[in-house]
Amino acid sequence: MGAMTGAQVVVEALKRAGVEVVFALPGAQLDELFNAFYHAREHIRLIHPRHEQATAYMANGYALATGKLGVACVVPGPGLLNASAALATGFAQNAAVLCITGQIPTRFIGKGTGQLHEIKDQLNAVSGFTKFQGSITKPSEGPSVLAQAISLARSGRNRPVVVEIPPDTLQARADVDFGNFNPAPADPAPDAAAIAAAAALIAAAKF
Fold first, then answer.
1. Is residue 139's pLDDT more than 70?
2. Are 117 and 81 in contact (CB under 8 A)?
3. C-beta of residue 136 within 8 angstroms of C-beta of residue 164
4. N-terminal to C-terminal alpha carbon distance within the chain
5. Using alpha carbons only, what angle is made at residue 63 by residues 75 and 82, rounded to the nearest 5 degrees?
6. Which of 67, 98, 199, 206 has its Cα between 20 and 30 A from that of 110?
7. Among candidates 81, 11, 96, which has minimal Cα distance to 51?
8. Taking Cα atoms as reference points, which of 35, 34, 19, 125 lies closest to residue 82?
9. Predicted pLDDT at 153
10. CA-to-CA distance for 138 and 158, rounded, in angstroms?
11. pLDDT band at 190 (very low <50, low <70, confident <90, very high)
């Protein structure tokens, strides 16, 4: 598609995945992403809750009620941790939710310099109750990371996934290729022999 910012890549990926609604809470690390959402307002409706936990719970409810992908967007660190209660609930509920979170600037990650909203290894912090955790470190990675995340959220046992993207990546501009973008679920074909065997057992059961 030519040169795009990381933020435009995220929004374009959501549009291509058929996302129509995003539950999102703004913050300093996400300014560029909200600019991109504004320019896509005719395609994606942005709903602005008042707390990150509500953001993710609304995405859960949307996913379970509609059968579509629920999308939440929160700031990093405390924002993601506020959303974690809802993500953990969605993990138990089999909710297909994509949580997009910010990060601190790339040059400070892992340095422990006390950046706003910095926590140590935030993806590891949510790994126990999310199905996939991914990072987008440059705009060109966006299509593949988001396609994988969305596909996994909706494949097999539906469960929440998390993707982080630093503010400098949201702002960076690069040539991006969506040619291989495929967020479709990747469910394996059913085992016909196993189904036939189960049916035979049920047909022969006395109780």
1. yes
2. no
3. yes
4. 60
5. 30
6. 98
7. 81
8. 125
9. 98
10. 27
11. confident
The tokens of 114 are what? 């006390």
What token pair was written down for 109?
């990650």
Residue 187 predicted with pLDDT over 90: no
In terms of residues, how long is the chain? 207
The pLDDT value given to residue 151: 97
Tokens of 167: 């503010």
Provide the token pair at 41. 């307002």
21-37: per-residue pLDDT in tens? 999 999 999 999 999 99
3-state secondary structure 21-61: EEEECCCHHHHHHHHHHHHCCCCCEEECCCCHHHHHHHHHH
Structure tokens at 59: 């995405």
Place of tokens 């138990």: 92
Cα dihedral sign, 26-182-6-132? positive
